[in-house]
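anyone seen this seq b4? input:
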Amino acid sequence: MVFIIMQKTKRILVTDAAIKLIKKLKLDFSELIFHQSGGCCDGSSPMCFEKNDFKMGSSDVGLGEIEGCEFWMSKDQFEYWKHTQLTLDVVKGRGSSFSLEIPTGNRFMIRSRMFNEDELKNLDNLFYIPDNN
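predicted toks r here
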């Protein structure tokens, strides 16, 4: 008998260029976390913070991990993006956010593509902040 183990479809991927920048930032700041709020302007870009400098709330959705860093998105923003696979990338340029990469002359950005039907059936699980009310 042969068993085929299907790997779960990841919601968030990362490019080699982004991995290189994440590794550099980890040397300077240790543990990192990413959050994409869906706010206006640079608020709609993924932002990188020191893990203990950003508080997640019950309205945030965890999409997965990249390079050992959790990637979160606001629930409202996730509603728009839930049918897409996101890829964290980096481009030259300076944003106007509080994201840790801004002083490096680079900025993180998201590229996306729609999941196909098979991928949608096999998505990796989301994670949430427990509501402690």
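The chain is about 20% helix and 35% strand. The chain has one domain: 14-50+57-115. kinda curious what u guys think
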